Amino acid sequence: MPKIEINQVAEILKRNKADPSLLRAVVEEMNLLARAAQEDEKPPAVKKQFVILVSDPDGHFPKHDFAGWVLQIPDTESPVTTVERVIRASYEFNATKKGRLLPVKTVGEAIENVPAKHFKETEVWVKTKTPVLVLTTDNLIPKDKTGGGRAGDADEDEDDE
User: Fold this and answer.
1) Residue 151's pLDDT is what?
2) Could you tell me which residues belong to the region Disordered (predicted)?
């Protein structure tokens, strides 16, 4: 629905010779509604970033930071084929006029520079064009220092002894 300035509505009512008391009441009510609508405005959306969280309970991953990309493939396909799909999309891109001019040489360059249509043909959807930080976790939630998660747990432990 188009929004009209309150002043424009007041001018239209004046031109149509509306009763001044009615005009004043309408304008006041519109001002109240406008203020209420302004207060209801949502705050700006929070910018988000992707993070890859990898479960590493045995500590196999290196301790230093490394980065990766978030990709999607069909559910019916094996994740092992993902790198092959990226390489195939890169070959297709390098065969184009733009690809011959600026060929991609690494997986990172491919993900950042190859257009989505080449990935779509190989059924790969790139969710992050820039690398994101990969974090590792031991997959355990630490216990509270009080001995449990619920308030009554500490009292129950003392009764058992």
Assistant:
1) 54
2) 140-161
